[in-house]
Amino acid sequence: MSSTNPAAARPSHHLWFGVAAALLLAQVLILHFMGRIPICECGYVKLFEPGVNTPGNSQHIADWYTPSHIIHGFLFYWFAWLLFRKRPLSFRLSAAVLVEAAWEILENSPIIIDRYRTATMALGYSGDSILNSAMDTVFMALGFLFAARVPVWLTVIIAVFFELFTGWLIRDNLTLNVLMLISPIDAIREWQNALPAA
After folding, report:
1. What CA–CA distance (Å, rounded) separates 120 from 157?
2. Is 26 a member of any domain?
3. Which of the residues 34, 51, 148, 155 could staple to 198 if both were Cys, CB 3.0 to 4.6 A apart?
4. Beta bridge partners of 48
5. Entry pTM
6. What pLDDT, in 10s, does the model give residues 94-112?
């Protein structure tokens, strides 16, 4: 009777983590060839951009929309668990990175940038820097890995807190962003545009 090596029999997690990294690199390269700027036009990099409708928004490492990308990770973890629960976590993470990277590329296309400028509160939005877009995917991955390691109730509490806090502070969050992108409501847009300038 031949013996098998359990380590060899298991799917290679390193392979799928490598796939996730390669997808992130592909996102960066595609954005570069789309003409996106590498970092903020201001010429420097900040850890956090507190402004909402400011030139530096969506240009630095993090901003008030970072919580939305972390929530993406929560949601992608749950969907991937439902669809691929028998596959390794690293495979599911790769699938999540593929979806997020595809969205980041679409989000920085002229059609979505114009949609944001006309239908949402992002009147001056001109797209993300490559740094900001890549970090959006990294924050999604961190949210995904966090959701994989904590109880569902804790993930839900954090997601609700993020939505309520950013909704109160900047009058925007993941829920409102999706709603206004798909089916804009004038009353919400007026309320959002009445946000005092930072």
Report:
1. 27
2. no
3. 51
4. 62
5. 0.90
6. 999 999 999 999 999 999 8
